[in-house]
Amino acid sequence: MFVGKGRIKAGEIHSLGLEPPQYLGNRGLQVVSPFQAILDYEIAQNIPPGWVNFSISRTSPNGSWHKLERGHIPMDASFFAGFQDDLQNPELWKQFHEQLAAKKGQTPGPVPPLPKVDVEWLFWEMMRISRTPDPYMFPALQKLKASGKYLMGALSNTVKFPDGHAYNSDVSGVRSQFDFFISSAHTGLRKPDPKIYQVAIQEMKALAKQRGLPEPQPSDIVFFDDIGENLKGAKRAGMRTVKVTLGRIEDAVKELEKITGLSLLEGEDKARL
């Protein structure tokens, strides 16, 4: 999410003196995180939490997940087969098992059998849950939009649904909150590729010029994301960053309040902090 809004997930803030700051964000932070679906599935299936994300991360940049998010492969049976193969990699499972032991200060024991993952069910559960507006961030986004002080944009790692699929529609109204939306699956670039941050910066500059605002610089941008590597990529591009923690989205909204000076949390939500 940028301030100055993908799963779609990131954000930035431009502080331009007397001119309105610019806000660019990842849609994913405005909806319930698909990572929550992964965690819930792992717990329900007695899979060590973190395994699915570990596998996705370690198969970058040529894993099936990454190819799908870059729009290089279609969402079909071959994708699900490839995703299944990535999650059945014995070497990665061994590395994950050793990492868990190291975090606990233990010597790795025998590697347990690879867990079975119903990748197709998990994928669609991730897509389903990520269409639900986040109860903290989405209302904050609406208030930022209503203030008229911010340019709103989204930088999101996304997927292309088949033609005619119901998920192609913006039923929740999240995407309509943004002035522009940069999709990894449509640009062929995904976070944390340095090129996609440059695309976002140029899009923000073009929008600012169109509206008669001073040209924003990367250092004017505050980028919100829930993935460390994405935040590092934004920081390397010259942006300020804020880490969003799963289960503590309201903390990120509190940061937005500090940055913008606006009241973005409801009274009951403020009382919980």
CATH fold topology of the largest domain = Rossmann fold
User: C-alpha Rg, in Å?
Assistant: 19 Å
Secondary-structure element pattern, one letter each? EEEHHHHHHHEEHHEHEHH
What's the pLDDT, averaged over the residues?
86
Largest sheet: 4 strands, mixed
Query: Largest beta sheet: what is the strand line-up?
Result: 2-3-4-5
Strand content: 5-15%
State the CATH class of the largest domain. Alpha Beta
Overall spatial form: globular
Give the helix proportion (percent range).
40-55%
Number of strands: 7
Kindly, what is the distance between the CA atoms of the first and last residues, rounded to a whole number of angstroms? Answer: 22 Å
Unreliable stretches (pLDDT < 50, length at least 5) are 5-23
CATH superfamily of the largest domain: HAD superfamily/HAD-like
How many discrete domains? Answer: 2
Number of helices: 12
What is the level-2 CATH architecture name of the largest domain? 3-Layer(aba) Sandwich
Secondary structure category: alpha/beta
Oligomer: single chain
Describe the structure.
The structure is a single chain. The chain has 273 residues and is an alpha/beta fold. It folds into two domains: 2-33 and 131-272, Rossmann fold; 34-128. 44% of the residues lie in helices and 9% in strands. The radius of gyration is 19 Å and the shape is globular. This is Acyl-CoA dehydrogenase family member 10.
Q: Notable features of this structure?
A:
single chain, 273 residues, alpha/beta, Rossmann fold, 2 domains, four-stranded mixed β-sheet, 44% helix
